[in-house]
Design goal:
Chain A: Keywords: Nucleus, Repeat, Ribosome biogenesis, rRNA processing, Transcription, WD repeat. The complex is a heterodimer of chains A (841) and B (534). Chain A is 14% helix and 41% strand. Chain B starts with 20 loop residues before the first helix and ends in a 32-residue tail after the last helix. The chains are: A mainly beta (841), B alpha+beta (534).
């Protein structure tokens, strides 16, 4: 991004998490998903983001657990690299440079040391749509950065969609669908079979393949189609004698298919947002999980089959227990095609408010980068069907105190009247959410172009002004509670209808104290007094229509600023009712900072957007930055900071009280940060450790403390190169020992001898090694640990020897597994004796 | 997994009267007890002492037999009947201790009865024409009478002698009232349009007020500072302390007001009229707060102490008695509509207090869905429309049917839901359209549905006489509606021209300082649209 002094434009939050199929780890504790240029690791139980694996320089296009080591994961990216990560600790292990943009990644446990990636076809330059599946032999090397040049094409002319290519039973064959063709490649025979379908069947359904899934231990391929059918292909190792059966439930395209690990069930999903579970071989038995919120884009199943997870088109991942019950929802910032409502800041929660799911407003916390909640505005069942016109929230406004929210929803159907609803929501202190107060159906005869609340916080009445294409603007007021119907609270009603020469009003704006209302009618700005509804004055700057209107704040409240279509930024002085100054700028968006006099103007010039920050009273801009981003910025907002920055540099002072967020053409949320702020953020992120790997047992307290002590002492820089702390493995061993049922454990006598052994002061390293081996026998699961862990456990004996030399039982050093077991035992025994003593007395 | 969101039923602004405290209070009477009397009931008077019997004065035109009945407050049979009249009896009134009763008569004799006895205790002779007004003074020893011979007289009960005669009115005296606070003051109203306040200590009236119409009824406020008179279509309130200044003139009836009455707490004034209505006014702002309708013209009206019952006598010789519902009864009636499970069912298991180490498993709340919503949830669109078109829903709650049609339209499946109906189903649909198409609340939705129906079924027109007849009716209805709309638009245009010429053109202050402001002159449209907010 462009540097300007110390102010930078940065991406802030809300990245896409539904781009590719998420992956659940073997122990079902973590969920990995590609998110922009990084891979995010979520906890499946707490929904928190634990790690953000950063390293790729372009869009991450696929994530995969390494088949030979379930604690490592591959990720591929359009930057032409495949990276290997240790996702539990968030460390990049290796980078394989492939050299071509990669669109998806596949691997099978039966193909050791080989991964399959989808890259664009090299030879065919004229058609960029063709892709090939390439087998990459990963060279064994200790280096961090490895060049993988050993490529061999397996299949050509396949689809770039990762769901359209899948490995079959035991990695014997790979199935890939593209368009109307299904291709199955057998590795042993080195032979490919192609099966084609006709474009349309008799009833006009489209047969195009959308996704493929292979049964894990049966020769069966399931394919999803554009018309909602699922075909189960069998006997496909012959060119002619293949058969298929058809399942049909979905009414539109099947977007994802997945078999459960045992192959007993087939899961399918599509735009209906219903997860359908088909019994394999008893396909007429189906289970449904309806109303998941938005169209299903991907389905993933955990390796043990305990969890399913579905990604949805509204940037959401739902984690479902296999008993078809939603257990967790990971929700990112919902991005539609357009933000009808402007970006807004909820004055109470200081969260960003914009269109969310269809018919909802989302409240997104900018500080925590988390969706707080969705407010259902339309309150109607959303029908998941493409091409259906449904109610959309097009305008929303908050009043200054956050007590009232006004929303406009509209639905335009072909050949039917426009349906408009104006809804007013009151904030309910008890439930801490907005409650519908008044619904006004058909508030205007045509679309509403602008809406704003009166800003005055001290005034008795709250007022809302809406402008519409029907040539009127209306003022709505909270009617006093009438004495007759005491059971109903106060409601809103129309107070005034204004018009000016039959022109169409475009923008409206209240002055800071609420004493003036400016409404622009094409090229004329009319200024009204809301108290008496008198037309006070008109201001105009022909020849083009007004685009934006904005009153100055605080000391500049006497100024009214407007931008016109003819690239003019005008500033009127309302005391003299004359033009103070004007300048020629193509301003696409003008907005005022509510906490200072500053105003920000986004200007569109030559495909790039420039930002100017200025005070209406001063001719010189406070800050300007060329080429903030490409394309036009149409939505931006000033968000107040939680704590003020103390920046003394003149160019960054405007960021002291509030922060400027804006949406680019491609719906990326960006903001401006200063260097000092970034440093502070970095410092705080280092301290922030989310630890949920240890269950909340009585022993957690003991262990957790030690961990914290250790982390406090650990220097983060030196931690990578220096010896790694062996504690996490130790804690797992303890947990295993204590959580396994008693009848599975080795006999007490066996443990006792070990215990006694451990009490002895160790003399030689060789003895410790043998003991370590015993411990390994105990915990079988640890066998599959990564190299690093084995390394780290090797360092353990030395440590143990060093500390164990000092003291025996009392030492309780966190590094020593045995010592801790011992200590716990001792505590337990003590407890019992004490209790017994109490009972006796 | 979000739950199914039920169809939103649009709440339309309620037409008709608003439910107020007054409506609730005055509606809280049982169905009237109707008793057939022998003639038009001319006067009703409640005994001031418990058990608050009331005397009803009525006559029959056939046999000229005259009665004063005394009814118990809750019985439907007369407690006592006085029949010793030779001619039509008028104005049977109780004394303040409820022991004596006085009544005038067409034969100009005033009779005084003991409530316990049958025979008249005293007969006051002296009037020359029918006596329509009788009343006891507040000292209980004198009687005021007013007669068609234009005189009103004071009589002494113990001596049975005439004390004084006032000959100031120039027409029949048809109403009069004595002061309850001062034994010497009384007021009479006459057909000569005047009200006169007399003081027994002087020989003439001390105050005269002009009502403007023949006065039919008089009423003094308990404070006796205000006097209410009824005559013609008017009810007027006079301030006696300000020398008979008129305070309010109410014209809420469209026929002669015959009777006045005050509620026990003095907060409400009731007036009965020949137009068959009883109106209840608020005495602070004199606005009508409630209205009772009766079957025939009302001649007399009385309210029991504590508003326990309203008794109305009508020209068709029916006496209508409405008793107030007791609190239990009013509850009982609402409870009778549907038998609900007993209280025990609801508290079952609820009073169990969880112990400290109990693990609380919350019970899933079952979402209740209406029948049509259940069908909509399963995407059974035709069945959903069928359920919404059930007879009860269609007639009683057309908004539900319309809401379901709207929802189907939103889902894009209205066409499927409307199609494939047989003659009966189609005629049901058309019936609904005929009934509700021109309702402005439902028109936007139903017009779409009607268009679809015509599109779908235009091929079967002419096959069923029932459907054809209904389609013709629909066409007729629409044509009529178009005519109405045209007429209304014409009226609107006329009004616009009238307003435009009537309103003065307002100059908008255009700042002279602003050189750049080329445009000026805006008309502020001052029309205030009050949109119904729901």
């Amino acid at each position: 991004m462009v540097e300007h002094g110390d102010i930078r434009v940065v991406h802030r939050g809300g990245s896409k998490i539904n781009f590719r199929k998420p992956v659940i780890t073997n122990d079902s504790r973590f969920l990995l998903c590609a998110s922009g240029e990084s891979v995010k690791v979520f906890s499946t139980s707490t929904e928190e983001c634990i790690h953000d694996l950063r390293g790729h320089t372009d869009l991450v296009t696929g994530v995969l657990i390494k088949p030979s080591n379930h604690l490592q994961a591959f990720s591929c990216s359009a930057d032409g690299t495949v990276r290997l990560w240790d996702f539990t600790d968030g460390i990049l292990i290796k980078t394989y440079v492939i050299g071509y943009p990669i669109f998806s990644i596949h691997a099978s446990p039966h193909h050791e040391g080989v991964i399959f990636v989808v890259t664009p076809m090299q030879g065919d330059k004229r058609s960029g749509e063709l892709f090939q599946l390439v087998a990459v032999h990963l060279p064994q090397s200790g280096d961090q950065l490895v060049e993988a040049r050993e490529l061999s094409a397996v299949l050509t002319g396949i689809s770039s969609n990762p769901a359209a290519t899948v490995f079959g039973r035991g990695g014997e064959y790979i199935a890939s669908a593209n368009g109307l063709q299904l291709e199955v490649y057998f590795f042993k025979k080195q032979k490919a079979y192609r099966f084609s379908l006709k474009e349309d069947n008799k009833k006009g359904g489209k047969n195009t393949f959308t996704c493929v899934a292979c049964h894990p231990n049966d020769d069966c391929i399931a394919t999803g189609h554009e018309d909602g059918k699922i075909r189960l292909w069998r006997n496909f190792n012959h060119k002619k004698e293949y058969t298929y059966s058809t399942l049909h439930w979905h009414h539109s395209a099947v977007s994802s298919l997945s078999f459960t690990p045992e192959g007993t069930n087939l899961l399918s999903g599509g735009i209906e947002s219903v997860l359908v579970q088909w019994r394999y071989n008893q396909e007429n038995q189906r289970d449904f999980l309806p109303r998941l919120g938005a169209a299903i884009t991907h389905i993933a199943v955990s390796p043990d089959g305990a969890l399913y997870c579905t990604s949805h088109s509204d940037n959401k991942i739902t984690i479902i227990q296999s008993c078809v019950k939603v257990s967790a929802v990971i929700q990112g910032l919902v991005k539609g095609e357009s933000v009808g409502t402007d970006l807004m800041i909820d004055p109470r929660s200081k969260s960003l408010v914009l269109n969310g799911k269809p018919g909802h407003l989302q409240f997104y916390s900018l500080q925590r980068d988390k969706l707080l909640y969705n407010l259902d505005i339309v309150q109607q069942e959303y029908i998941h069907e493409s091409g259906l016109q449904q109610f959309e929230v097009v305008k929303a406004a908050f009043d200054a105190s956050g007590n009232w929210l006004a929303t406009v929803e509209e639905r335009k159907q072909k050949g039917a009247e426009l349906e408009l609803n104006l809804k007013l929501w009151a904030f309910d202190e008890q439930t801490q959410s907005f409650v519908l107060n008044t619904t006004i159906s058909a508030p205007h005869e045509a679309q509403i172009t602008g809406m704003c609340f009166s800003h005055a916080t001290d005034s008795q009445t709250t007022m809302l002004v809406s402008t519409s294409k029907d040539g009127h603007f209306k003022a709505w007021q909270l009617a006093a509670q009438s004495q007759t119907d005491a059971d109903e609270g106060p409601s809103w009603s129309c107070d005034f209808v204004g018009a000016y020469h039959g022109l169409v009003p475009e923008c409206c704006s209240f002055s800071a104290d609420g004493s003036l209302l400016a409404v622009s009618f094409q090229e004329v700005v009319t200024v009204w007094s809301p108290a008496s509804w008198e037309l006070l004055t008109t201001l105009s700057q022909p020849p083009k229509a007004i685009r934006n209107l904005c009153f100055g704040r605080l000391s500049c409240s006497k100024y009214l600023l407007g931008t016109t279509d003819s690239n003019l930024l005008c500033c009127w002085n309302l005391l003299t009712c004359s033009l103070e100054w004007s300048t020629s700028m193509d301003v696409s968006l003008l907005l005022a900072d509510p906490l200072s006099e500053n105003m920000a103007a986004f200007c569109c010039q030559a495909g790039c957007t420039d930002l100017f920050v200025f005070k209406p009273s001063e001719p010189r801009p406070l800050f300007s930055q060329k080429a903030v981003c490409s394309g036009m910025v149409t939505r931006a907002v000033f968000a107040p900071r939680e704590e003020m920055l103390e920046s003394c540099e003149e160019s960054s002072q405007w960021l002291n009280r509030s922060q400027l967020y804006f949406l680019t053409q491609y719906m990326d949320l960006m903001t401006f940060t200063t260097k000092t702020e970034e440093e502070r953020l970095m410092a705080s992120s280092k301290q922030l450790v989310i630890d949920d790997s240890v269950a909340m047992t009585p022993f957690y307290l003991l262990l957790g403390k030690h961990r914290q002590q250790q982390q406090g002492g650990d220097d983060p820089q030196s931690g990578v190169s220096a010896e790694r702390t062996p504690l996490p493995q130790g804690s797992v061993a303890i947990k295993e020992l204590l959580q396994t049922p008693a009848h599975v454990l080795p006999s007490t006598s066996f443990l006792c001898s070990m215990f006694v052994q451990s009490l002895l002061i160790s003399v030689t390293d060789s003895r410790e090694e043998s003991k370590h081996a015993e411990e390994e026998m105990e915990s079988e699961k640890e066998e599959e640990d990564s190299e690093e862990e084995i390394e780290s456990s090797r360092t353990r004996p030395e440590q143990q020897a060093a500390v164990g030399g000092g003291e025996a039982a009392e030492s309780a050093a966190p590094a020593m597994t045995k010592a801790q077991v011992r200590e716990l035992r001792r505590v337990k025994k003590l407890d019992h004796s004490w209790l017994a003593g109490l009972l006796d007395s | 997994m979000a739950s199914f969101k039920p169809t939103k039923i649009q709440v339309y602004p309620k037409l008709g009267e608003k439910v107020t405290q007054d409506t609730l209070y005055w509606k809280n009477y049982k169905a009237p007890v109707q008793i057939k009397e022998f003639g038009a009931v001319t006067h009703i008077d409640f005994s001031p002492v418990a058990p608050h019997n009331f005397a009803v004065t009525a006559f029959t035109r056939v046999c000229w037999h005259l009665f004063v009945h005394i009814y118990g407050p809750f019985s439907q049979e007369p407690v006592k009947t006085f029949t010793r009249f030779k001619d039509t009896a008028y104005s049977g009134r109780f004394r303040s201790d409820g022991q004596l009763l006085v009544a005038g008569c067409e034969d100009s004799v005033v009779r005084l009865f003991d409530v316990g006895g049958k025979v008249a205790l005293r007969m006051f002779r002296g009037h020359t024409k029918a006596v329509h007004v009788t009343d006891f003074t507040s000292d209980r020893y004198q009687i005021l009478t007013g007669s068609d011979d234009y005189t009103c007289r004071l009589w002494d009960i113990p001596n049975s002698t005439e004390l004084n005669t006032y000959q100031e009115h120039t027409d029949y005296i048809r109403c009069g009232v004595t002061s309850k606070l001062n034994r010497d003051l009384f007021i009479t109203g006459s057909y000569d349009h005047t009200l006169k306040l007399f003081d027994a200590r002087v020989d003439r009236s001390v105050m005269t007020m002009d009502h403007g119409q023949p006065v039919e009824s008089l009423l003094l406020y308990p404070s006796e500072g205000l006097l209410v008179s009824a005559g013609g279509r008017y009810v007027k309130v006079w301030d006696l302390l300000k020398g008979g200044q008129p305070l309010v003139s109410l014209k809420n009836h469209h026929k002669t007001v015959t009777s006045l009455c005050l509620s026990t707490n003095g907060q409400r004034l009731l007036s009965a009229s020949l137009d068959r209505h009883v109106k209840v006014y608020n005495t602070t702002n004199y606005k009508v707060v409630h209205n009772f309708d009766y079957a025939a013209s009302i001649l007399s009206l009385a309210l029991a102490p504590d508003d326990e019952s309203i008794v109305v006598g009508m020209t068709n010789s029916i006496l209508s008695i409405k008793h107030r519902k007791s609190p239990e009864e009013s509850k009982e009636i609402s409870g009778q509509q549907r038998r609900r499970p007993s209280y025990r069912v609801f508290v079952k298991g609820k009073n169990y207090v969880p112990k400290q180490d109990d693990y609380l498993v919350s019970k899933p709340v079952k979402q209740h869905l209406a029948k049509y919503d259940k069908q909509l949830k399963k995407f059974n669109v035709s069945k959903a429309l069928d359920t919404a078109l059930e007879t009860w829903t269609r007639h009683r709650k057309p908004e539900i049917t319309v809401a379901v049609i709207k929802e189907l339209d939103r889902r894009g499946t209205l066409n499927n839901a409307l199609a494939g109906r047989d003659e009966q189903g189609l005629s049901q649909l058309l019936n609904f359209l005929i009934g509700n198409l021109v309702d402005p609340r439902f028109a936007p939705v139903l017009v779409t549905a009607a268009e679809m129906i015509l599109d779908i079924y235009h091929s079967v027109i002419g096959q069923s006489p029932v459907v054809d007849r209904q389609l013709l009716r629909l066409q007729e209805l629409l044509e009529r509606e178009i005519d109405y709309q045209q007429d209304l638009l014409e009226v609107l245009g006329m009004l616009d021209t009238m307003f435009a010429s009537a309103l003065p053109r307002k100059e908008v202050p255009c700042s002279g300082a602003s050189r750049s402001n080329g445009l000026a002159q805006g008309e502020a449209s001052t029309s205030r649209a009050q949109l119904q907010a729901t």
